[in-house]
Write a structure and sequence with these properties.
Helix content is 83%, strand content 0%. With 92 residues, it is mainly α. It has one domain (2-91). The longest helix has 25 residues, at 29-53. The two termini are 23 Å apart. The mean pLDDT is 86.
């Protein structure tokens, strides 16, 4: 789930960067018309993925609410604990 959250976060950040670049340069309505909904879907998907990946850690869910980079922040916060859980499972 962490990999999916990271990929969704990259899409979220990428579409935000492209939207801002479009706004600062040509401001073409067709570009905004396509990237806006894609960014919104990526943001929503990141929130859903973070809720599924949080495993009782509310910090992951709260970080994903940060617009633009929330998906990447949540993936980073979810990563180390998941790795530690895997180490514990292999030790026992």
């Amino acid at each position: 789930m962490n990999t999916a959250l990271r990929r969704i976060g990259l899409v979220e950040l990428g579409t935000l960067v492209l939207l801002v670049l479009n706004l600062l340069t040509v401001h073409h309505p067709a570009i905004s018309g396509v990237l806006g909904p894609v960014h919104g879907l990526a943001y929503t998907a990141a929130v859903v993925a973070a809720v599924l990946a949080m495993r009782g850690r509310h910090r992951v869910w709260l970080l994903v609410l940060v617009p633009g980079i929330g998906g990447l922040l949540a993936a980073r916060a979810a990563g180390p604990a998941t790795a530690r859980e895997g180490e514990r499972a292999s030790i026992t």
